UniProtKB/TrEMBL annotation:
HAMAP family: Ribosomal_uS8_B. Belongs to the universal ribosomal protein uS8 family. The keyword Cell division does not apply. InterPro entries: Ribosomal_uS8, Ribosomal_uS8_sf. Keywords: Ribonucleoprotein, Ribosomal protein, RNA-binding, rRNA-binding. This is Small ribosomal subunit protein uS8. One of its GO terms (cellular component) is ribosome. One of the primary rRNA binding proteins, it binds directly to 16S rRNA central domain where it helps coordinate assembly of the platform of the 30S subunit. It comes from Sphaerochaeta associata. Transmembrane segments: none annotated. Part of the 30S ribosomal subunit. Contacts proteins S5 and S12. Gene3D superfamilies: 3.30.1370.30, 3.30.1490.10. The gene is rpsH.
Length: 132
């Protein structure tokens, strides 16, 4: 079955695997998904990731991160802009997630970056998702 929103599908797989306390989750590969996973790694929400090829099909294997009490480090991940409703913002109006404890991922002309870097670079763009 075809997926109409592959990014939302990826976010849901990561959220569900984290809540079910899985060690890892496999996601189909695309450039946009790979950039979002890199942001998750750089911000400390996941342990690691790697590209895996199985039977000629490429996947991103995401290793999830948990705290000392085996609770997920990733408390929430939510899609903001959808295929039916695109949401854009300028750098002056960049939203903050949980007063700076979360991250907003933005697709800009400079690539897919965090909201903080978009504000520093003074570029706006499409709000992809928020992570906390």
């Amino acid at each position: 079955m075809a997926v109409s929103d592959p990014v939302a599908d990826m976010l849901t797989k990561i959220r569900n695997a984290s809540l079910a306390k899985h060690e890892k989750v496999d996601i189909s590969t695309s450039k946009m998904k790979l950039q979002i996973v890199k942001i998750l790694k750089n911000e400390g929400f996941i342990k690691n990731f790697k590209k895996v090829t199985k039977d000629g099909i490429s996947y991103i294997r995401v290793f999830l991160k948990y705290d000392e009490t085996q609770g997920p480090v990733l408390h929430g991940i939510e899609r903001i802009s959808t295929p039916g409703r695109r949401i854009y913002t300028g750098y002056r109006d960049m939203p903050r997630v949980y007063n700076g404890h979360g991250v907003v991922v933005v697709s800009t002309s400079a690539g897919i970056i965090t909201g903080k870097k978009a504000t520093e670079n003074k570029v706006g763009g499409e709000l992809i998702c928020s992570i906390w």
